[in-house]
From TrEMBL:
Keywords: Aminotransferase, Pyridoxal phosphate, Transferase
Enzyme class: transferase
Residue span(s) of domain Aminotransferase class I/classII large: 57-378
Residues of the signal peptide: none
Xref: CDD domains: AAT_like
Organism this protein belongs to: Phycicoccus elongatus Lp2
Subunit comment: Homodimer.
Recorded family membership: Belongs to the class-I pyridoxal-phosphate-dependent aminotransferase family.
EC id: 2.6.1.-
BP term (GO), one: alpha-amino acid metabolic process
UniProt-recorded Gene Ontology molecular function terms: pyridoxal phosphate binding; transaminase activity
Protein name according to UniProt: Amino acid aminotransferase
Top-level division of the source organism's lineage: Bacteria
Names of the cofactor(s): pyridoxal 5'-phosphate
């Protein structure tokens, strides 16, 4: 449409939408979604909380409230962040519509058309969708099992003009499941200081750790206020609440608040009140700890099934947490075509082909596979069928 603004050119429908519509249909096994397991939502507790809130004494739960978020929820989030090595006050926290709104607001605050955002290779597709309307240019930095390669990052920072922001998902990244090592986190902060760029740390999977020790957040290593930390209740409580947060220096936080006011006035008061009631009335740490064995089991089952059934020449990541493994097929295999021609029609299996996860120079021979929420028998049957088709196609 010629009357659309220029930014509309950068808001194209994603190729993923088509086949994601298949998820949930009978006969389809979806490794594509990456949704948290709905059997793990604390429904009974939330039911009681909403019942209480929807009474005349709590009519203010249906009223407008502050655009930064309700004071109780900001304080509770600040308390959890402080306990996680990021000492902060309620005023330092902005409540957002999920982590996704944080991505949108940060891009709006920092990115003029042509400014460069440095992303991991591959990166979270939803972040690219959020950033694109601001018309950024992208640079991307390879990853290995220690996360973003900071030597390659240094090279990019040395040779690229107008870098404003480095975007990273350090814990159990979407889509690779990889975690950035402590040494790399430190180096990233050093490089950001040296080259004077902002860092956007996005951590929705941070608390879904199944093995090993929690690493300090990048924000906790930041001494110059250049790291913006995003978090979310989507994976630890429920994504339908649409609740996330931004932790940032006062000047940044205030400007993000103004942009949030412009975008949507505030998050729904009812959901913020409910989340605050959940956090103060129940033990969310116990709730999270209670979810981990389910996800750990699903991860182990998927990795073991892949190991058993995928042919030689296929590689995959072994995530310590989160919801995803990233599978790399031999070069020459186009995952989207393999899915369209074989996986869907012959096995009823869907996953997410890799190309849209690349900010630059897309690679087509990988896939993101989520182990969350697929019943054991379907998971094993899906991976087994996929292995058989891969053997055939790669032969
Ligand atoms: N960042 C990453 C890396 C994600 O994977 C997601 C979604 N799963 C989000 C942000 C946004 O999630 P939400 O808006 O539900 O918090």
């Amino acid at each position: 449409m010629t009357r659309f603004a220029r930014r509309a050119e950068r808001v194209q429908p994603s190729a993923i939408r088509e086949f994601l519509a298949l998820a949930g249909q009978p006969g389809i096994t979806s490794f594509a979604g990456g949704y948290p397991d709905p059997t793990l939502f604390p429904i009974e507790q939330l039911h009681k909380i909403y019942d209480d809130l929807l009474t005349p004494a709590n009519a203010s739960a249906l009223q407008y409230t502050a655009s930064d978020g309700t004071p109780e929820l900001r304080a509770l989030v600040a308390g959890r962040l402080t306990a996680d090595g990021m000492p902060c006050a309620p005023d330092d926290v902005l409540i957002t519509q999920g982590g996704q709104q944080g991505l949108d607001l940060v891009a709006k605050l920092f990115i003029d058309a042509g400014d460069v955002i440095v992303c991991e290779r591959p990166t979270f597709l939803g972040a690219l969708i959020a950033f694109n309307p601001c018309e950024p240019a992208y640079a991307s930095v390879p990853m290995d099992d220690e996360g973003l390669d900071t030597d390659a990052l240094e090279q990019v920072l040395r040779t690229t003009q107008r870098v404003k922001l480095i975007y990273t998902v350090p814990d159990f990244q979407n889509p690779t499941g990889r975690t950035m090592s402590l040494a790399r986190r430190r180096r990233l902060v050093e490089l950001a200081d040296e080259f004077d760029v902002m860092v956007l740390e996005d951590t929705p999977y941070r608390e879904l750790r199944y093995d090993g020790e929690r690493l300090p957040s990048i924000k906790s290593l930041d001494t110059s206020g250049r790291v913006i930390h995003l978090g979310s209740f989507s994976k630890i409580l429920a994504p339908g609440l649409r609740l996330g947060w931004v932790l940032a220096e006062p000047e940044i936080r205030e400007n993000l608040s103004l942009l949030k006011l412009a975008a949507d006035t505030q998050n729904g008061t009812l959901n913020m009140r409910a989340a605050a009631a959940y956090l103060s009335g129940f033990d969310i740490e116990a709730h999270i700890a209670g979810m981990l064995p389910t996800y750990r089991h699903q991860r182990d089952l998927m990795l073991a099934s892949i190991e058993e059934h995928f042919p030689a020449g296929v590689r995959w990541t072994r995530p310590d947490g989160g919801l995803f493994t990233w599978v790399t097929f031999p070069e020459g295999l186009d995952t989207a075509a393999f899915q369209r021609d074989h996986l869907i029609p012959r096995a009823g299996v869907i996953l997410v082909p890799s190309a849209p996860f690349f900010a630059t120079e897309p690679e087509v021979n990988h896939a993101r596979m989520s182990f969350s929420g697929v019943p054991d028998d379907r998971l094993v049957a899906g991976v087994t069928a996929m292995g058989g088709l891969l053997r055939e196609v790669l032969a």
